[in-house]
Amino acid sequence: MTSKRDGEIMSGGAAGRKVAIVTGAGRGIGRETSIVLSSAGYAVECVDLDGDAAAETAKLVGGRATQLDVCDEVAVAEFVGTLDRCDVLVSNAGIWRFTPLLETPISEAIDVLRVNVIAPLIWIKSVAPLMAAGGGGSIVHLASTAARAIATATGVYPSSKAAVIALTEQAAVELGPLGIRVNAVGPGRIVTEGSSGRVDPDDSKVGGRALPLGRWGAPRDIADAIAFLCSPGSAYITGQVVWVDGGLTVATNEFLRVARNQPHSSAGQS
Fold first, then answer.
1. For this structure, is 157 an active site residue?
2. Are residues 84 and 103 in contact, defined by beta-carbon separation less than 8 angstroms?
3. How many C-beta atoms lie closer than 10 Å to residue 196's C-beta?
4. What is the pTM of this model?
5. What is the reported pLDDT for 199?
6. Summary mean pLDDT of the chain
7. Residue from 42, 96, 123, 157 carrying the catalytic annotation
8. For residues 256, 259, 264 and 267, what is the CA-based torsion angle, rounded to 10 degrees?
């Protein structure tokens, strides 16, 4: 079990503030989401396997940091047990291992599925009773356009994100009567600390121009969508995936054509 608390400045929400848990809060989309939710008035619980990164985010948002393995069912339950309330859960933590399927070690595939699919289920099971006791709340998962626009040599990552979508839909059906809404955000090409090292800057510029909105996304684009799904403005939305991809999923062929600098042709499109 891995669990370590840092910055004990609040317990279940300072001065009655609503509480938001963000996993993978140490960097990228998780950190930006923590910032946006804090600005919206939430007391943010910043959870990350990297305790130092979680502490940095917590310092930025005036929240509390917890070093935690999101797949550790016992540690997650113990952590949730320290809270007086939970109004929002953002299951952002995730990993990827990009290899061709025939070269993907089963142990590697299990790791990806464990973090990307099983962990969100663990968090649902731990948080839902507390959330329901407080009158309901909002759970947001991170899907991916990888579940819709399959690329080669991406291992089981697309499969894991497709499973997240199904989990989101099932949880929405089962938890709706408890006043809990469950949705997902589907990021497209987002430049984060985790992806920047794998992306050639020139390639990213070309790819961005190929999208209908003309650019690659940023963590703030995703964080704003997550915040919307946690807000009263989305009170009648559940079981949905909000694709935040600059139009990638509706213009995949055009994206590939421009990115590859190929002349326009309808051949091979369906």
1. yes
2. no
3. 11
4. 0.88
5. 52
6. 89
7. 157
8. -30
DSSP 195-226: HHTTS-HHHHHHHHHHSTTSS-B-HHHHHHHH
Which own/partner pairs from 203-208 qualify as long-range (CB within 8 Å, at least 24 positions apart)?
A: 203/259, 206/258, 206/259, 206/261, 207/255, 207/259, 208/246
Q: Give me the phi and psi of 140, to 5 degrees please.
A: -125, 125
Number of other residues whose CB lies within 10 A of the CB of residue 115? 21
pLDDT at 86 > cutoff 70: yes
Mean pLDDT, residues 136-140: 99
| Residues constituting the chain | 270
CB 136, CB 77: distance < 8 Å: no
Quote the tokens at residue 111: 């790791």
Give the H or E element holding residue 40.
Answer: none
Amino acid identity for residue 195 in this structure = S
The sign of the CA dihedral 229, 225, 161, 192 is negative
Domains of the chain with CATH codes: 3-259 (3.40.50.720)
pLDDT tens-digit map of 167-179:
999 999 999 999 9
Type and span of the H or E element at 230: none
Chain CA centroid to CA 26, Å? 13
Residue 251 has pLDDT above 90, yes or no: no
